[in-house]
Amino acid sequence: MPTVSDTERLTIRHFAHEDADFIVRLLNEPSFIRHIADKQVRTREEAVRYLDSGPVASYCAHGFGLNLVQLKGEGTPIGMCGLVKRDELEGPDLGYAFLPEFCGQGYAFEAATAVLEQGMRAHALESVLAVTLPDNARSNRLLRALGFRARGTVDLYGARNNLYEYRR
């Protein structure tokens, strides 16, 4: 699978079908369901369909999408991070989710920084959006630390979200 970026501690690459078991685990974490959505992915087969209709379809349509984030060297999958193009938003937005045991260690910041740099350069983007629930304090802090600026709020998937924008 194509590598999007290598950082000091991480390899960020496109998803493949062999990542289906990891997707089942990540998408069923209580924090994922609470802060993002219940994607109703419970089996390996559903995870393969999710990957094909989500990240893989996005790679084909836009040249970017959510990517697997894994620890460099050992290859342990710890989360996902990438640019997403949602019909509801005017431009691409940064998406990310990590397993709870890997939160609070700077991995999300490291992955998001690499994804933003690579994505903006490769796709000649002037800005990237981000959305997060107002009560997701960790995500709101991360976006501000990355240099995103508040732009207001937006209704997305039945919830009011903070809307941020990152500009070069």
UniProtKB/TrEMBL annotation:
Keywords: Transferase
Keyword Transferase tagged: yes
Pfam families, A to Z: Acetyltransf_3
Keyword Transferase carried by entry: yes
Coiled coil: none
One term of GO molecular function: acyltransferase activity, transferring groups other than amino-acyl groups
Protein name as annotated: GNAT family N-acetyltransferase
